[in-house]
């Protein structure tokens, strides 16, 4: 078993001659929390879209857990355990928090079980759903209609519905975006908790979150890797500091 659960080689995505992602060699170690950072337009989201097969690469190779997944269908890759946590749109706003988690659990089981046909068989999932809600500290919200939940808690629910799919590797897209201080702290604790037996790759703007949470950082600029390493090292890299000037101050992260 390779120490790297996910690797890309020469990963490139061109749109009408413009390279959004250019020759990216990414290596994510098994069990790590790995962050993808960089100024706006650096290609972070495109990398995520390539990894989760929403976009086909122009060139390059993606290997996950020893399998070449470059040309695989998104659903096949997800079943291998590489799962992306979506923004809130992935949950159903008019259902309760509990019902949303249950739907995630049903997805994992696959439709061939026709679980929705019987109320009784849904109850089997209730215990599992409550366990997941407990894991993300949402038991008190179980019967709350999702649309009525505070923003930060919706993001926790989104992580719970992703966990329902039992990922070996989770991709988190800006998990703390738009959150206040208290919510950020809660989500950071949650990510640390759910990382216990899985790998996490996250795109994150908030550098203090990255500094506190991540084992390794890859900095993208204009679609290419500018630097890689632990935060301490990357944050002192003059090229990285220069890339961040004007978009966000790297030094703020230390406080």
Automatic annotation (TrEMBL):
GO terms for cellular component: plasma membrane. InterPro entries: AAA+_ATPase (IPR003593), ABC_AA/LPS_Transport (IPR051120), ABC_transporter-like_ATP-bd (IPR003439), BCA_ABC_TP_C (IPR032823), P-loop_NTPase (IPR027417). It comes from Zoogloea oleivorans. Keywords: ATP-binding, Cell membrane, Membrane, Nucleotide-binding, Transport. The keyword Cell inner membrane does not apply. One of its GO terms (molecular function) is ATP binding. The keyword Nucleotide-binding applies. SUPFAM superfamilies: P-loop containing nucleoside triphosphate hydrolases (SSF52540). SMART domains: AAA. This is ABC transporter ATP-binding protein. Residues 6-247 form the ABC transporter domain. It holds the Pfam family BCA_ABC_TP_C.
């Amino acid at each position: 078993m390779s120490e790297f659960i996910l690797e890309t080689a020469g990963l490139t995505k061109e749109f009408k001659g413009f390279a959004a992602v250019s020759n990216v060699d990414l290596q994510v170690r098994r069990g790590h929390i790995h962050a993808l950072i960089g100024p706006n337009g650096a290609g972070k989201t495109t990398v995520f879209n390539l990894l989760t097969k929403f976009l086909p690469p122009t060139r390059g190779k993606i290997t996950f857990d020893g399998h070449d997944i470059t040309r695989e269908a998104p659903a096949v890759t997800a079943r291998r355990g590489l799962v992306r946590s979506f923004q809130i749109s992935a949950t159903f706003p008019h259902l309760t928090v509990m019902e949303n988690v249950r739907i995630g659990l049903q997805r994992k089981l696959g439709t061939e079980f026709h679980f929705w046909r019987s109320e009784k068989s849904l109850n089997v999932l209730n215990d599992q759903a409550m366990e997941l809600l407990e894991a993300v500290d949402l038991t008190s919200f179980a019967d709350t209609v999702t649309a009525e939940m505070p923003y930060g808690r919706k993001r926790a629910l989104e992580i719970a519905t992703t966990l329902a799919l039992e990922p070996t590797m989770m991709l988190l897209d800006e998990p703390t975006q738009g959150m206040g201080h208290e919510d950020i702290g809660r989500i950071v604790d949650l990510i640390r908790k759910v990382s216990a037996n899985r790998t996490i790759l996250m795109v994150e703007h908030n550098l203090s979150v990255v500094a506190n949470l991540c084992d390794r950082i890859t900095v993208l600029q204009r679609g290419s890797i500018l630097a890689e390493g632990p935060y301490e090292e990357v944050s002192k890299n003059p090229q990285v500091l220069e890339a961040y000037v004007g978009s966000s101050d790297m030094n703020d992260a230390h406080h």
